[in-house]
Amino acid sequence: MPAMHVAVCVKQIPDPSAPGRLDPATRTLVREGKFVMDDSDSYGVEMALQLVQAAGGGAVTVISMAPGGEIKGVREALAMGADDAIVVSDETLRGSDSLSTAKVLAAAVRRAGEAGGVIDLVLAATESTDGYTGTTPVQLAALLDLPSITFAKKVTCGESAAGGLTVTVERQTDEGHDDVEVALPVLVTLTAGSVEPRYPAFKAIMGAKAKPCQVIGLAELGLDSGDVGFSGARQEITSVTAAAERTAGDVVEDDGQAHVRIVSYLESLKVV
Amino acid sequence: MAVDRIWVVVEPAGGGVATNGLELLAGARGLAATVEAVTFGDANGAAATLGDHGAATILTVDTGNAMAGVPVAAAIVAALEARGSDRPTAILLPQSYEGRDIAGRLSVALDAPVLANAVGLSDDEGRLVAEHAVFGGSTIVKAAFTTDRVQLFLVRPKTFVAEGGAGAAGTVEALPIPDTGRPGATTVLARHTEERQGPKLDEAAVVVSGGRGLVDRDRYALIEELARLLHGAPGATRAIVDAGWVPYSYQVGQTGKTVKPDVYIAVGISGATQHMVGMKGAKKIIAINKDPDAPIFAICDLGIVGDATKILPKLIDALKNRS
Protein backbone atom coordinates (compact mmCIF):
# COMPACT_ATOMS: atom_id res chain seq x y z
CA MET A 1 0.00 0.00 0.00
CA PRO A 2 1.19 3.58 -0.58
CA ALA A 3 2.44 5.48 2.49
CA MET A 4 -0.18 7.48 4.40
CA HIS A 5 -0.07 10.91 6.00
CA VAL A 6 -2.65 11.09 8.77
CA ALA A 7 -3.67 14.25 10.66
CA VAL A 8 -5.16 13.64 14.11
CA CYS A 9 -7.14 16.31 15.95
CA VAL A 10 -6.26 16.40 19.63
CA LYS A 11 -8.01 18.61 22.14
CA GLN A 12 -6.10 19.59 25.23
CA ILE A 13 -8.54 20.03 28.07
CA PRO A 14 -8.38 20.93 31.75
CA ASP A 15 -8.24 17.79 33.91
CA PRO A 16 -11.83 16.45 33.49
CA SER A 17 -11.93 15.18 37.07
CA ALA A 18 -11.70 18.78 38.33
CA PRO A 19 -15.10 20.50 38.54
CA GLY A 20 -15.79 22.88 35.65
CA ARG A 21 -16.98 26.46 35.98
CA LEU A 22 -17.99 29.41 33.85
CA ASP A 23 -16.15 32.71 33.69
CA PRO A 24 -18.65 35.17 35.25
CA ALA A 25 -17.66 37.94 32.79
CA THR A 26 -17.56 36.06 29.48
CA ARG A 27 -19.83 33.14 30.52
CA THR A 28 -17.56 30.73 28.71
CA LEU A 29 -15.93 27.62 30.11
CA VAL A 30 -12.89 28.44 32.22
CA ARG A 31 -10.00 26.54 30.68
CA GLU A 32 -7.12 26.66 33.12
CA GLY A 33 -5.09 24.48 35.44
CA LYS A 34 -3.33 21.32 34.34
CA PHE A 35 -4.04 20.38 30.73
CA VAL A 36 -4.23 16.83 29.46
CA MET A 37 -5.02 15.20 26.14
CA ASP A 38 -8.76 14.50 26.01
CA ASP A 39 -9.06 10.73 26.50
CA SER A 40 -11.46 10.61 23.55
CA ASP A 41 -8.60 11.65 21.28
CA SER A 42 -6.28 8.83 22.33
CA TYR A 43 -8.31 6.52 20.04
CA GLY A 44 -7.56 8.76 17.04
CA VAL A 45 -3.84 8.80 17.80
CA GLU A 46 -3.74 5.02 18.23
CA MET A 47 -5.81 4.44 15.07
CA ALA A 48 -3.51 6.74 13.06
CA LEU A 49 -0.41 4.88 14.25
CA GLN A 50 -1.93 1.48 13.42
CA LEU A 51 -3.12 2.57 9.95
CA VAL A 52 0.25 4.06 9.03
CA GLN A 53 1.95 0.88 10.18
CA ALA A 54 -0.47 -1.25 8.15
CA ALA A 55 0.21 0.94 5.09
CA GLY A 56 3.90 0.21 5.53
CA GLY A 57 4.91 3.82 6.07
CA GLY A 58 3.85 7.45 6.35
CA ALA A 59 3.48 10.00 9.09
CA VAL A 60 1.09 11.10 11.84
CA THR A 61 0.70 14.82 12.46
CA VAL A 62 -1.13 16.05 15.56
CA ILE A 63 -3.36 19.12 15.10
CA SER A 64 -4.49 21.10 18.14
CA MET A 65 -5.87 24.50 19.12
CA ALA A 66 -5.23 25.61 22.68
CA PRO A 67 -4.89 28.73 24.80
CA GLY A 68 -1.55 29.94 26.10
CA GLY A 69 0.67 27.91 23.78
CA GLU A 70 -0.35 24.78 25.69
CA ILE A 71 1.42 21.62 24.44
CA LYS A 72 1.29 19.19 27.41
CA GLY A 73 -1.60 17.19 25.94
CA VAL A 74 -0.01 17.18 22.48
CA ARG A 75 3.17 15.74 24.01
CA GLU A 76 1.10 12.77 25.21
CA ALA A 77 0.15 12.09 21.57
CA LEU A 78 3.78 12.48 20.45
CA ALA A 79 4.84 10.08 23.21
CA MET A 80 2.36 7.52 21.85
CA GLY A 81 4.24 7.73 18.56
CA ALA A 82 2.92 10.63 16.47
CA ASP A 83 5.68 12.27 14.40
CA ASP A 84 5.04 16.00 14.75
CA ALA A 85 2.45 18.55 15.82
CA ILE A 86 0.94 21.89 14.90
CA VAL A 87 -0.61 23.81 17.78
CA VAL A 88 -2.56 26.97 17.03
CA SER A 89 -2.59 29.35 19.95
CA ASP A 90 -3.75 32.95 19.83
CA GLU A 91 -5.38 35.26 22.38
CA THR A 92 -8.03 36.20 19.79
CA LEU A 93 -9.20 32.57 19.69
CA ARG A 94 -10.71 32.75 23.17
CA GLY A 95 -14.49 32.27 23.02
CA SER A 96 -14.38 30.47 19.66
CA ASP A 97 -17.46 28.38 18.86
CA SER A 98 -17.32 25.07 17.03
CA LEU A 99 -17.44 26.61 13.53
CA SER A 100 -14.60 29.04 14.27
CA THR A 101 -12.61 26.19 15.80
CA ALA A 102 -13.17 24.12 12.67
CA LYS A 103 -11.93 27.02 10.50
CA VAL A 104 -8.71 27.17 12.52
CA LEU A 105 -8.21 23.38 12.45
CA ALA A 106 -8.87 23.34 8.68
CA ALA A 107 -6.14 25.92 8.11
CA ALA A 108 -3.76 23.91 10.31
CA VAL A 109 -4.53 20.66 8.45
CA ARG A 110 -3.85 22.44 5.12
CA ARG A 111 -0.54 23.67 6.52
CA ALA A 112 0.38 20.14 7.60
CA GLY A 113 -0.43 18.94 4.08
CA GLU A 114 1.77 21.58 2.48
CA ALA A 115 4.67 20.83 4.80
CA GLY A 116 4.55 17.05 5.02
CA GLY A 117 2.77 15.84 1.87
CA VAL A 118 -0.94 15.52 1.08
CA ILE A 119 -3.11 14.54 4.03
CA ASP A 120 -4.81 11.22 3.22
CA LEU A 121 -6.87 10.91 6.35
CA VAL A 122 -8.06 13.22 9.13
CA LEU A 123 -9.08 11.55 12.40
CA ALA A 124 -11.01 13.08 15.30
CA ALA A 125 -13.08 11.97 18.27
CA THR A 126 -16.88 12.01 17.97
CA GLU A 127 -16.96 14.87 20.50
CA SER A 128 -14.77 16.41 23.16
CA THR A 129 -15.24 15.68 26.84
CA ASP A 130 -15.47 19.31 27.93
CA GLY A 131 -17.43 21.10 25.19
CA TYR A 132 -19.15 18.07 23.61
CA THR A 133 -21.06 19.91 20.90
CA GLY A 134 -19.95 17.14 18.54
CA THR A 135 -20.16 19.32 15.44
CA THR A 136 -16.53 20.40 14.91
CA PRO A 137 -15.26 17.31 13.02
CA VAL A 138 -17.97 17.42 10.33
CA GLN A 139 -17.55 21.19 10.00
CA LEU A 140 -13.83 20.56 9.55
CA ALA A 141 -14.52 17.98 6.81
CA ALA A 142 -16.88 20.39 5.03
CA LEU A 143 -14.29 23.19 5.16
CA LEU A 144 -11.65 20.86 3.71
CA ASP A 145 -14.17 19.68 1.06
CA LEU A 146 -13.76 16.10 2.29
CA PRO A 147 -16.28 13.33 2.84
CA SER A 148 -16.78 12.35 6.47
CA ILE A 149 -17.63 9.08 8.13
CA THR A 150 -18.68 9.63 11.72
CA PHE A 151 -18.98 7.27 14.71
CA ALA A 152 -16.54 4.66 13.42
CA LYS A 153 -16.28 1.45 15.45
CA LYS A 154 -13.76 -0.13 13.07
CA VAL A 155 -11.57 1.36 10.33
CA THR A 156 -9.71 -0.52 7.58
CA CYS A 157 -7.69 0.96 4.74
CA GLY A 158 -7.07 -0.86 1.49
CA GLU A 159 -6.13 -0.32 -2.11
CA SER A 160 -8.88 0.20 -4.66
CA ALA A 161 -8.85 -1.49 -8.07
CA ALA A 162 -7.62 1.83 -9.53
CA GLY A 163 -4.63 1.80 -7.17
CA GLY A 164 -5.75 4.57 -4.80
CA LEU A 165 -6.45 4.11 -1.09
CA THR A 166 -9.97 3.51 0.20
CA VAL A 167 -11.28 3.31 3.72
CA THR A 168 -13.97 0.95 4.95
CA VAL A 169 -15.68 1.83 8.21
CA GLU A 170 -18.09 0.06 10.51
CA ARG A 171 -20.23 2.99 11.52
CA GLN A 172 -22.35 2.95 14.69
CA THR A 173 -26.06 3.59 14.05
CA ASP A 174 -29.11 3.61 16.29
CA GLU A 175 -30.14 0.19 15.07
CA GLY A 176 -26.76 -1.51 14.67
CA HIS A 177 -24.04 -0.53 12.26
CA ASP A 178 -23.49 0.37 8.61
CA ASP A 179 -20.54 -0.65 6.44
CA VAL A 180 -19.43 2.53 4.68
CA GLU A 181 -16.72 2.93 2.06
CA VAL A 182 -15.08 5.91 0.37
CA ALA A 183 -11.83 6.72 -1.42
CA LEU A 184 -9.25 8.75 0.53
CA PRO A 185 -8.84 11.53 1.51
CA VAL A 186 -11.60 11.48 4.15
CA LEU A 187 -12.29 12.57 7.72
CA VAL A 188 -13.30 9.83 10.17
CA THR A 189 -14.54 10.27 13.73
CA LEU A 190 -13.90 7.44 16.18
CA THR A 191 -16.00 6.11 19.00
CA ALA A 192 -14.35 5.06 22.23
CA GLY A 193 -13.26 1.48 22.21
CA SER A 194 -12.61 1.40 18.45
CA VAL A 195 -8.96 0.64 19.26
CA GLU A 196 -6.97 0.08 22.45
CA PRO A 197 -4.75 3.14 22.99
CA ARG A 198 -1.18 2.26 23.96
CA TYR A 199 0.55 3.51 27.09
CA PRO A 200 3.79 5.22 26.12
CA ALA A 201 6.96 3.88 27.70
CA PHE A 202 9.16 6.22 29.76
CA LYS A 203 11.69 6.41 26.94
CA ALA A 204 8.96 7.47 24.48
CA ILE A 205 7.74 10.14 26.90
CA MET A 206 11.25 11.57 27.12
CA GLY A 207 11.72 11.24 23.34
CA ALA A 208 8.51 13.17 22.65
CA LYS A 209 10.17 16.33 23.93
CA ALA A 210 12.53 16.29 20.95
CA LYS A 211 9.79 15.85 18.34
CA PRO A 212 8.85 18.86 16.15
CA CYS A 213 5.97 20.83 17.67
CA GLN A 214 5.16 24.14 15.98
CA VAL A 215 3.17 26.64 18.02
CA ILE A 216 1.72 29.23 15.65
CA GLY A 217 -0.67 32.18 15.74
CA LEU A 218 -3.61 33.13 13.56
CA ALA A 219 -1.57 35.39 11.27
CA GLU A 220 0.64 32.48 10.26
CA LEU A 221 -2.48 30.62 9.12
CA GLY A 222 -3.72 33.60 7.15
CA LEU A 223 -6.92 33.83 9.21
CA ASP A 224 -8.70 37.00 10.28
CA SER A 225 -9.36 37.48 14.00
CA GLY A 226 -12.85 38.78 13.16
CA ASP A 227 -13.86 35.26 12.06
CA VAL A 228 -12.91 33.56 15.31
CA GLY A 229 -13.08 33.99 19.07
CA PHE A 230 -15.84 36.02 20.70
CA SER A 231 -16.31 38.21 17.60
CA GLY A 232 -16.75 35.21 15.30
CA ALA A 233 -19.06 33.21 17.57
CA ARG A 234 -22.30 35.03 16.63
CA GLN A 235 -24.13 33.58 19.60
CA GLU A 236 -24.44 34.80 23.15
CA ILE A 237 -25.33 33.43 26.54
CA THR A 238 -28.44 35.20 27.75
CA SER A 239 -28.63 33.73 31.26
CA VAL A 240 -26.98 31.32 33.68
CA THR A 241 -29.11 29.83 36.46
CA ALA A 242 -28.92 26.95 38.90
CA ALA A 243 -31.04 23.95 37.91
CA ALA A 244 -33.71 22.61 40.24
CA GLU A 245 -31.89 20.20 42.54
CA ARG A 246 -33.07 16.67 43.06
CA THR A 247 -33.16 15.80 46.70
CA ALA A 248 -31.67 12.60 48.00
CA GLY A 249 -34.09 9.97 49.26
CA ASP A 250 -33.28 7.02 51.49
CA VAL A 251 -29.68 5.88 51.40
CA VAL A 252 -29.08 2.69 53.37
CA GLU A 253 -26.16 0.36 54.01
CA ASP A 254 -26.53 -3.14 52.53
CA ASP A 255 -27.18 -5.56 55.38
CA GLY A 256 -27.33 -8.54 53.05
CA GLN A 257 -31.05 -7.94 52.45
CA ALA A 258 -30.81 -4.90 50.16
CA HIS A 259 -32.37 -6.87 47.31
CA VAL A 260 -35.57 -7.26 49.34
CA ARG A 261 -35.69 -3.53 49.86
CA ILE A 262 -35.23 -2.89 46.14
CA VAL A 263 -37.95 -5.38 45.18
CA SER A 264 -40.44 -3.79 47.55
CA TYR A 265 -39.55 -0.33 46.26
CA LEU A 266 -40.12 -1.55 42.66
CA GLU A 267 -43.44 -3.01 43.83
CA SER A 268 -44.45 0.34 45.31
CA LEU A 269 -43.71 1.93 41.93
CA LYS A 270 -45.75 -0.82 40.25
CA VAL A 271 -42.77 -1.77 38.08
CA VAL A 272 -43.14 -5.38 39.20
CA MET B 1 -45.68 32.89 17.80
CA ALA B 2 -41.97 33.53 18.10
CA VAL B 3 -41.28 33.11 14.41
CA ASP B 4 -43.13 32.53 11.13
CA ARG B 5 -41.57 29.30 10.01
CA ILE B 6 -39.41 26.46 11.38
CA TRP B 7 -38.07 23.40 9.58
CA VAL B 8 -37.58 20.17 11.48
CA VAL B 9 -35.26 17.42 10.26
CA VAL B 10 -36.97 14.08 10.89
CA GLU B 11 -34.79 11.01 10.49
CA PRO B 12 -35.91 7.49 9.67
CA ALA B 13 -36.05 4.65 12.21
CA GLY B 14 -37.18 1.07 11.89
CA GLY B 15 -39.09 1.55 8.61
CA GLY B 16 -40.79 4.78 9.73
CA VAL B 17 -39.90 8.01 11.50
CA ALA B 18 -37.75 8.42 14.60
CA THR B 19 -39.51 9.59 17.75
CA ASN B 20 -36.99 12.39 18.28
CA GLY B 21 -38.25 13.99 15.04
CA LEU B 22 -41.86 13.86 16.22
CA GLU B 23 -40.76 15.44 19.51
CA LEU B 24 -39.13 18.30 17.60
CA LEU B 25 -42.30 18.82 15.54
CA ALA B 26 -44.24 19.23 18.78
CA GLY B 27 -41.67 21.74 20.05
CA ALA B 28 -41.66 23.66 16.77
CA ARG B 29 -45.47 23.92 16.78
CA GLY B 30 -45.28 25.95 19.95
CA LEU B 31 -42.78 28.38 18.43
CA ALA B 32 -43.70 28.88 14.77
CA ALA B 33 -46.84 29.63 12.78
CA THR B 34 -45.79 27.16 10.08
CA VAL B 35 -43.82 23.96 10.66
CA GLU B 36 -42.34 21.94 7.83
CA ALA B 37 -40.47 18.64 7.98
CA VAL B 38 -37.38 17.59 6.04
CA THR B 39 -37.14 13.79 5.77
CA PHE B 40 -34.99 11.15 4.14
CA GLY B 41 -34.84 7.37 3.89
CA ASP B 42 -37.82 5.47 5.25
CA ALA B 43 -39.20 8.66 6.80
CA ASN B 44 -40.09 9.86 3.29
CA GLY B 45 -43.14 7.62 3.28
CA ALA B 46 -44.57 8.93 6.54
CA ALA B 47 -46.55 11.94 5.29
CA ALA B 48 -49.65 10.95 7.26
CA THR B 49 -47.75 10.60 10.55
CA LEU B 50 -45.81 13.81 10.03
CA GLY B 51 -48.95 15.74 9.07
CA ASP B 52 -50.64 14.40 12.19
CA HIS B 53 -47.69 15.79 14.19
CA GLY B 54 -48.03 19.21 12.65
CA ALA B 55 -45.89 19.28 9.50
CA ALA B 56 -47.66 21.38 6.86
CA THR B 57 -45.19 20.28 4.19
CA ILE B 58 -42.92 17.25 4.02
CA LEU B 59 -39.73 17.97 2.10
CA THR B 60 -38.24 14.61 1.11
CA VAL B 61 -34.64 13.88 0.14
CA ASP B 62 -33.72 10.62 -1.59
CA THR B 63 -30.22 9.87 -0.28
CA GLY B 64 -29.94 6.45 -1.94
CA ASN B 65 -26.87 4.56 -0.74
CA ALA B 66 -24.94 7.64 0.41
CA MET B 67 -24.56 8.63 4.07
CA ALA B 68 -27.33 11.14 4.78
CA GLY B 69 -25.35 14.14 6.05
CA VAL B 70 -23.97 15.59 2.81
CA PRO B 71 -26.94 15.08 0.46
CA VAL B 72 -29.58 16.17 3.00
CA ALA B 73 -27.62 19.33 3.86
CA ALA B 74 -27.04 20.11 0.17
CA ALA B 75 -30.74 19.66 -0.63
CA ILE B 76 -31.69 21.92 2.30
CA VAL B 77 -29.26 24.64 1.21
CA ALA B 78 -30.65 24.57 -2.35
CA ALA B 79 -34.22 24.63 -1.03
CA LEU B 80 -33.45 27.62 1.21
CA GLU B 81 -32.20 29.54 -1.83
CA ALA B 82 -35.25 28.56 -3.87
CA ARG B 83 -37.64 29.59 -1.09
CA GLY B 84 -36.57 33.23 -0.95
CA SER B 85 -38.68 35.07 1.63
CA ASP B 86 -40.43 31.83 2.68
CA ARG B 87 -37.21 30.65 4.29
CA PRO B 88 -37.50 29.28 7.81
CA THR B 89 -36.04 31.31 10.67
CA ALA B 90 -34.66 28.17 12.26
CA ILE B 91 -33.93 24.53 11.52
CA LEU B 92 -34.24 22.04 14.40
CA LEU B 93 -32.27 18.82 14.17
CA PRO B 94 -32.10 15.88 16.56
CA GLN B 95 -28.80 15.49 18.45
CA SER B 96 -28.25 12.10 16.83
CA TYR B 97 -25.76 10.39 14.53
CA GLU B 98 -27.40 11.77 11.35
CA GLY B 99 -28.60 15.04 12.89
CA ARG B 100 -25.06 16.02 13.82
CA ASP B 101 -23.73 15.16 10.34
CA ILE B 102 -26.42 17.29 8.67
CA ALA B 103 -25.95 20.22 11.09
CA GLY B 104 -22.17 20.30 10.59
CA ARG B 105 -22.51 20.39 6.80
CA LEU B 106 -25.29 23.03 6.94
CA SER B 107 -23.22 25.16 9.28
CA VAL B 108 -20.33 25.41 6.83
CA ALA B 109 -22.48 25.77 3.70
CA LEU B 110 -24.47 28.61 5.28
CA ASP B 111 -21.55 29.95 7.35
CA ALA B 112 -23.97 29.75 10.29
CA PRO B 113 -23.09 28.74 13.85
CA VAL B 114 -24.85 25.85 15.61
CA LEU B 115 -26.28 25.70 19.12
CA ALA B 116 -25.90 22.06 20.15
CA ASN B 117 -27.23 19.90 22.97
CA ALA B 118 -30.32 22.05 23.57
CA VAL B 119 -32.60 20.68 26.30
CA GLY B 120 -35.19 23.41 25.85
CA LEU B 121 -36.21 26.00 23.31
CA SER B 122 -38.35 29.00 24.08
CA ASP B 123 -39.63 32.29 22.77
CA ASP B 124 -38.06 35.34 24.40
CA GLU B 125 -39.93 38.26 22.84
CA GLY B 126 -39.68 36.87 19.35
CA ARG B 127 -36.16 35.50 19.80
CA LEU B 128 -35.48 31.78 19.94
CA VAL B 129 -33.53 30.91 23.08
CA ALA B 130 -31.99 27.48 23.67
CA GLU B 131 -31.47 25.92 27.09
CA HIS B 132 -28.38 23.88 27.83
CA ALA B 133 -27.72 21.76 30.91
CA VAL B 134 -24.07 22.02 31.94
CA PHE B 135 -21.92 20.69 34.77
CA GLY B 136 -23.92 17.52 35.16
CA GLY B 137 -27.21 19.36 34.85
CA SER B 138 -26.55 21.51 37.91
CA THR B 139 -26.51 24.72 35.85
CA ILE B 140 -28.82 25.88 33.08
CA VAL B 141 -27.28 28.14 30.47
CA LYS B 142 -29.53 29.92 27.99
CA ALA B 143 -28.11 31.02 24.65
CA ALA B 144 -29.31 32.70 21.47
CA PHE B 145 -27.91 33.68 18.10
CA THR B 146 -26.73 37.18 17.27
CA THR B 147 -26.83 36.58 13.51
CA ASP B 148 -29.56 36.94 10.90
CA ARG B 149 -28.58 33.64 9.28
CA VAL B 150 -30.77 30.56 9.49
CA GLN B 151 -30.60 29.44 13.12
CA LEU B 152 -29.39 25.87 13.56
CA PHE B 153 -30.35 24.06 16.77
CA LEU B 154 -29.33 20.50 17.67
CA VAL B 155 -31.85 19.37 20.25
CA ARG B 156 -31.40 16.44 22.62
CA PRO B 157 -34.03 13.70 22.58
CA LYS B 158 -36.82 13.94 25.20
CA THR B 159 -36.70 17.73 25.23
CA PHE B 160 -40.29 17.87 23.98
CA VAL B 161 -43.12 15.36 24.16
CA ALA B 162 -44.36 14.06 20.79
CA GLU B 163 -48.04 14.79 20.25
CA GLY B 164 -50.22 13.86 17.29
CA GLY B 165 -53.68 15.07 16.32
CA ALA B 166 -52.37 18.33 14.88
CA GLY B 167 -53.56 18.08 11.28
CA ALA B 168 -54.11 16.14 8.09
CA ALA B 169 -51.44 14.47 5.96
CA GLY B 170 -48.99 17.15 4.84
CA THR B 171 -48.14 18.06 1.26
CA VAL B 172 -45.12 16.15 0.00
CA GLU B 173 -42.43 17.93 -2.01
CA ALA B 174 -39.33 16.09 -3.24
CA LEU B 175 -36.17 18.19 -2.91
CA PRO B 176 -33.56 17.80 -5.64
CA ILE B 177 -29.99 17.11 -4.49
CA PRO B 178 -27.39 19.31 -6.20
CA ASP B 179 -24.05 17.77 -7.20
CA THR B 180 -22.29 17.02 -3.92
CA GLY B 181 -18.85 16.27 -5.44
CA ARG B 182 -16.19 14.47 -3.40
CA PRO B 183 -17.83 14.96 0.03
CA GLY B 184 -20.94 13.11 -1.20
CA ALA B 185 -18.97 10.10 -2.41
CA THR B 186 -19.52 7.85 0.63
CA THR B 187 -21.31 4.58 -0.12
CA VAL B 188 -23.20 2.57 2.45
CA LEU B 189 -22.41 -1.00 1.41
CA ALA B 190 -24.63 -2.71 3.96
CA ARG B 191 -26.85 -1.85 6.90
CA HIS B 192 -26.83 -4.24 9.85
CA THR B 193 -29.55 -4.30 12.46
CA GLU B 194 -28.44 -5.64 15.82
CA GLU B 195 -30.88 -8.04 17.35
CA ARG B 196 -31.86 -6.22 20.52
CA GLN B 197 -34.58 -7.64 22.61
CA GLY B 198 -36.82 -5.42 24.66
CA PRO B 199 -37.43 -1.70 24.39
CA LYS B 200 -34.98 0.90 23.02
CA LEU B 201 -32.72 2.57 25.54
CA ASP B 202 -34.17 6.05 25.11
CA GLU B 203 -37.78 4.83 25.05
CA ALA B 204 -37.75 2.26 27.86
CA ALA B 205 -39.83 2.78 31.00
CA VAL B 206 -37.06 1.12 33.03
CA VAL B 207 -33.34 1.55 32.39
CA VAL B 208 -30.67 -0.46 34.21
CA SER B 209 -27.17 0.92 33.72
CA GLY B 210 -23.82 -0.45 34.77
CA GLY B 211 -20.53 1.27 35.50
CA ARG B 212 -16.99 0.57 36.66
CA GLY B 213 -18.27 -0.75 39.98
CA LEU B 214 -19.12 -4.00 38.20
CA VAL B 215 -15.32 -4.49 38.15
CA ASP B 216 -15.37 -7.22 35.52
CA ARG B 217 -16.85 -6.92 32.00
CA ASP B 218 -18.48 -10.35 32.26
CA ARG B 219 -20.72 -9.01 35.00
CA TYR B 220 -22.44 -6.72 32.50
CA ALA B 221 -24.55 -9.80 31.70
CA LEU B 222 -26.18 -9.24 35.12
CA ILE B 223 -27.23 -5.74 34.02
CA GLU B 224 -28.76 -7.18 30.86
CA GLU B 225 -30.57 -9.87 32.82
CA LEU B 226 -31.97 -7.41 35.36
CA ALA B 227 -33.11 -5.12 32.53
CA ARG B 228 -34.81 -8.05 30.82
CA LEU B 229 -36.63 -9.11 34.00
CA LEU B 230 -37.94 -5.55 34.42
CA HIS B 231 -38.88 -5.24 30.71
CA GLY B 232 -36.35 -2.44 30.49
CA ALA B 233 -33.24 -1.57 28.54
CA PRO B 234 -29.60 -1.91 29.60
CA GLY B 235 -27.39 1.19 29.59
CA ALA B 236 -23.81 2.05 30.45
CA THR B 237 -21.47 4.78 31.63
CA ARG B 238 -18.86 6.30 29.40
CA ALA B 239 -16.14 4.57 31.44
CA ILE B 240 -17.23 1.05 30.50
CA VAL B 241 -18.00 2.06 26.91
CA ASP B 242 -14.48 3.49 26.65
CA ALA B 243 -13.17 0.26 28.13
CA GLY B 244 -14.86 -1.60 25.29
CA TRP B 245 -17.29 -3.59 27.47
CA VAL B 246 -20.36 -2.50 25.47
CA PRO B 247 -20.92 -0.48 22.27
CA TYR B 248 -21.28 3.30 22.17
CA SER B 249 -25.03 2.94 21.54
CA TYR B 250 -25.42 1.84 25.20
CA GLN B 251 -23.88 5.03 26.59
CA VAL B 252 -26.06 7.22 28.80
CA GLY B 253 -24.80 10.73 29.51
CA GLN B 254 -23.49 13.97 28.17
CA THR B 255 -21.82 12.35 25.17
CA GLY B 256 -24.36 9.53 24.88
CA LYS B 257 -28.10 9.16 25.13
CA THR B 258 -30.49 11.12 27.31
CA VAL B 259 -33.00 8.90 29.06
CA LYS B 260 -36.07 9.84 31.08
CA PRO B 261 -37.49 6.50 32.24
CA ASP B 262 -39.94 5.96 35.08
CA VAL B 263 -37.20 4.11 36.95
CA TYR B 264 -33.44 4.33 36.45
CA ILE B 265 -31.27 1.80 38.24
CA ALA B 266 -27.61 2.86 38.45
CA VAL B 267 -25.38 -0.08 39.35
CA GLY B 268 -21.75 0.51 40.26
CA ILE B 269 -21.99 4.08 38.99
CA SER B 270 -20.46 6.87 41.04
CA GLY B 271 -22.37 9.63 39.29
CA ALA B 272 -19.83 11.57 37.27
CA THR B 273 -21.09 14.81 35.74
CA GLN B 274 -20.78 13.20 32.33
CA HIS B 275 -23.28 10.51 33.31
CA MET B 276 -25.73 12.48 35.46
CA VAL B 277 -26.73 14.89 32.70
CA GLY B 278 -28.09 11.97 30.71
CA MET B 279 -30.29 10.43 33.42
CA LYS B 280 -31.20 13.15 35.91
CA GLY B 281 -34.60 13.47 34.28
CA ALA B 282 -35.66 9.97 35.40
CA LYS B 283 -38.79 9.94 37.58
CA LYS B 284 -37.22 7.63 40.18
CA ILE B 285 -33.57 6.69 40.62
CA ILE B 286 -32.25 3.64 42.45
CA ALA B 287 -28.49 3.56 43.02
CA ILE B 288 -26.20 0.76 44.17
CA ASN B 289 -22.60 1.74 44.90
CA LYS B 290 -19.84 0.80 47.33
CA ASP B 291 -18.73 4.35 48.07
CA PRO B 292 -21.09 6.13 50.48
CA ASP B 293 -19.77 9.49 49.24
CA ALA B 294 -20.57 8.80 45.57
CA PRO B 295 -22.38 11.79 44.03
CA ILE B 296 -25.12 9.48 42.69
CA PHE B 297 -26.48 9.16 46.27
CA ALA B 298 -27.24 12.89 46.36
CA ILE B 299 -29.83 12.56 43.61
CA CYS B 300 -31.27 9.07 44.09
CA ASP B 301 -34.61 8.11 45.61
CA LEU B 302 -33.35 4.82 46.99
CA GLY B 303 -29.64 4.33 47.56
CA ILE B 304 -27.93 1.11 48.59
CA VAL B 305 -24.37 1.41 49.88
CA GLY B 306 -22.96 -1.97 49.09
CA ASP B 307 -21.21 -4.28 46.67
CA ALA B 308 -23.18 -4.40 43.43
CA THR B 309 -21.53 -7.66 42.47
CA LYS B 310 -23.08 -9.33 45.55
CA ILE B 311 -26.45 -7.55 45.48
CA LEU B 312 -27.26 -8.03 41.77
CA PRO B 313 -27.40 -11.86 41.74
CA LYS B 314 -29.66 -11.83 44.82
CA LEU B 315 -31.91 -9.18 43.27
CA ILE B 316 -32.18 -11.17 40.03
CA ASP B 317 -33.05 -14.36 41.96
CA ALA B 318 -35.66 -12.52 44.01
CA LEU B 319 -37.32 -11.14 40.89
CA LYS B 320 -37.24 -14.55 39.19
CA ASN B 321 -38.87 -16.17 42.22
CA ARG B 322 -41.66 -13.65 42.15
CA SER B 323 -42.71 -14.40 38.60
Characterise this structure.
The complex is a heterodimer of chains A (about 270) and B (about 325). Chain A contains eight helices and 13 strands. Chain A is of the alpha/beta class and about 270 residues long. Chain A has one domain: HUPs (Rossmann fold), CATH 3.40.50.620. The longest helix of chain A has 19 residues. Chain B is of the alpha/beta class. Chain B folds into two domains: about 180 residues, HUPs (Rossmann fold), CATH 3.40.50; about 120 residues, Rossmann fold (3-Layer(aba) Sandwich), CATH 3.40.50. In chain B, about 25% of the residues lie in helices and about 30% in strands. A seven-stranded parallel sheet of chain B has the order 7-11-6-1-4-5-12, with helices on both faces. Chain B has a five-stranded parallel sheet with strand order 15-14-16-17-18. In chain B, strands 8-9-10 form a three-stranded antiparallel sheet, with no helix packed on it.
Short descriptors:
heterodimer, A: 272 residues, alpha/beta, Rossmann fold, nine-stranded mixed sheet, two-stranded antiparallel sheet, 13 strands, 29% helix, 29% strand, B: 323 residues, 2 domains, seven-stranded parallel sheet, five-stranded parallel sheet, 8 helices, 18 strands, 26% helix, 30% strand, elongated
